[in-house]
Amino acid sequence: MQTLDQTVVKHHGKRALERCQSLAGISEMDGAILRQYLTPEHKRCNQLVAIWMEEAGMDTWQDEVGNQWGCLASDNPGAKRLVIGSHLDTVPNAGAFDGILGVLLAIELADIAHQQGINLPFHLDIVGFCDEEGTRFATTLIGSKALAGNFDPGWLDLTDVNGVSMSEALTAFGLSPEDVGNARLPKDDVFGYLEVHIEQGPVLEAADQALGVVSAIAGAKRAVIEFIGQSDHAGTTPMDMRKDTTVAAAELTIAIEQIAKQCQHNEVATVGYINAKPGVANVISGYSAVSLDARAQSDDDLELLLYKISRTAKAIASERQLELSWQWTHEAETVACDTKFQQQLLAACHANGEDSPVLTSGAGHDAMAIAPICPVGMLFIRSPGGISHHPAESVIPEDVEKALAVMYSAISSID
Amino acid sequence: MQTLDQTVVKHHGKRALERCQSLAGISEMDGAILRQYLTPEHKRCNQLVAIWMEEAGMDTWQDEVGNQWGCLASDNPGAKRLVIGSHLDTVPNAGAFDGILGVLLAIELADIAHQQGINLPFHLDIVGFCDEEGTRFATTLIGSKALAGNFDPGWLDLTDVNGVSMSEALTAFGLSPEDVGNARLPKDDVFGYLEVHIEQGPVLEAADQALGVVSAIAGAKRAVIEFIGQSDHAGTTPMDMRKDTTVAAAELTIAIEQIAKQCQHNEVATVGYINAKPGVANVISGYSAVSLDARAQSDDDLELLLYKISRTAKAIASERQLELSWQWTHEAETVACDTKFQQQLLAACHANGEDSPVLTSGAGHDAMAIAPICPVGMLFIRSPGGISHHPAESVIPEDVEKALAVMYSAISSID
User: Fold this and answer.
1) What is the ipTM of this complex?
2) Stretch 214-253 of chain A: residues touching chain B, C-beta under 8 Å
3) Angle in degrees, 0-180, between the axes of helices B40-55 and B100-116, rounded to the nearest 10
4) With contacts defined as CB-CB under 8 Å, which chain B residues touch A384?
5) Domain B219-332, CATH among 3.90.1170.50, 3.10.420.10, 1.10.3720.10, 3.30.70.360
6) Which of A246, A256, A333, B241 is 20–30 Å from A183 (CA)?
7) How far apart are CA A312 and CA A258, in angstroms?
8) Domain locations in chain B?
9) Alpha-carbon span A219 to B240, nearest angstrom
10) The pairing of beta strand A358-361 with beta strand A211-217
11) What's the predicted TM-score (pTM) here?
């Protein structure tokens, strides 16, 4: 397994971070970062990224949905393609690294290979996805889903806060709404997809590790669980004659935490809010809704977690003689990362002196949308404080250098 | 102890209920009951009540704050006064009996005494309070507080939803803002205050009893208890690295219920809402506020209850490493009903074949505001379903007759 010279690593790691700051300057907001799909800033970002790709010896193009591509071609014209990428769009008031860093590290890798005159046994494709965050239109992962052939034509009618439809925005951007489906990647051409991303969580920092290899992107399900009881006067209704739904909601909230904590495979479950009605201090609430967000690294684990929560909710409702209603609001299946990619990334970590752990991604990523068409692998970089989607989002420069070195070693081991 | 003939009871009980329906027709809302302080409906209501009082042989007058009075004078001009009353105003979309029934039953009592030519050893004063609910201006018990000399001149500047101040409304009603203080009752004139009121709770119904004697009007305190933790990504933050305030709020909610249930003197404590921020499904909430409404039949009981809750809140915050903040939003001291009045009312119940229980009032009443100037006593009438402040509010006619008979016996026993 090949490793990079430290001088090369330092130079390219530094440049990737500088370029993150350059892209942060292309923003719709004054003094804060926002870059949405199909905006002038999206276009300027793609243009600058294309220049950097070309400087790295790559052929470049923008696809039908607005993703920016670069290709470092193999001398073997019949070679298959390895895609490395992440997203170039941001949430409002974002940090500089979420998504962006993964694209810019990939360009540094291509530049190193180009400078070293290496003839890779595969075409190295780099993609900067146009939309992962879903900030402008009410749907996420637009760029990567289009690649996997999962662009829903119904999305063309979605509108942004100004009433502009995606269809109109595509046209204004210079793209053609009827051609978006052509962004689909021919399945047989691509043998794998790799993505480097900041962790956006506290696990690597707590483990004192720069990098982590992702085993799976957690499946997630969201529900609203409603208890219906009876609103009564808080002063005149004795404690033993109440049908108080807020107490039931509280019992379920405690139970959800306990059940998730007792799980063995890093399952998480969260109550983000309890919505009581009428919701005033001196009235016992006759209705309470509990939000549930549950994630696990396998669909079996998720189903077991949800079964336990559902059983507990039923028991609470029965014990308190309340009605229970359960509405699903979101569902994403677990995506397992390719075992061979995991092994190659771990071996590359070890070859570079890193004792990196294997961890689950609790957040969604483009790799999730690409998984239906090819094996995917992901490398996480430590997020100081676990902070992301915030101006205080950061990375440690040495961690970025390590990620670059590990990716170089990993790619060199792929045949 | 004297008891009434059943024919008399039936006649007067029936008329009191018919008059409740007549007053229900004097409403600011079409097809629903609303009668607020200092409105034309308040004036029409007082006028009609005054006519009924005069038919019962009483001298009538309206006092400086807008309460309607009637007096059945004793032959002894130096006799002291017994006041019987309740309120004539309503909440929006009210029932026909809350407050009103207490005033109209008192008028029937006066009418019976008048018809029987009884010379009472005290002047029997009946008062229909102008405002107990506080529906129009942001303060309650205006009429009874004015009687006790506790009308706050600052209230004159309070405005209703249309921007009309209480001062302007008094003038428009034909009263004089500067004279409101004169509604104060000379303390030495009055030896007691009695009030008949619907229970507005489920206790008597559950006990299968028509009537109950009130031992105390529960003191109440309200607070907002805030937990401050840290907002984090619901997917990427492991269960053991969270500072989730909603779970803390849920623990406190359960504890509040358990603590109140373990109390020995009918204490009640209620969480009406939990307000989590940011309050979205996929973010761990870094802030949660819990509303607390706690009531007890003595101030010592209330303090003990609140001490236990406060201690638990601190333990939860400490265990979960959260900040805790406690804001008081409302406070009303417990008002004990006069022991002698309780005994007289209980004896009157027994004399009329009623095995009435003694119970605490969880809701506030005019008697609470009168207590600073004289002993008070209250008789509760069963509320079917515990329903009040709702068009479905009702009473059982036989219960009303029993209340009338019991009040007659009780008054006849007062010397």
Assistant:
1) 0.84
2) 218, 220, 222, 224, 232-241, 244, 246-247, 249-251, 253
3) 20
4) none
5) 3.30.70.360
6) A333
7) 11
8) 6-217+334-412, 219-332
9) 20
10) parallel
11) 0.84
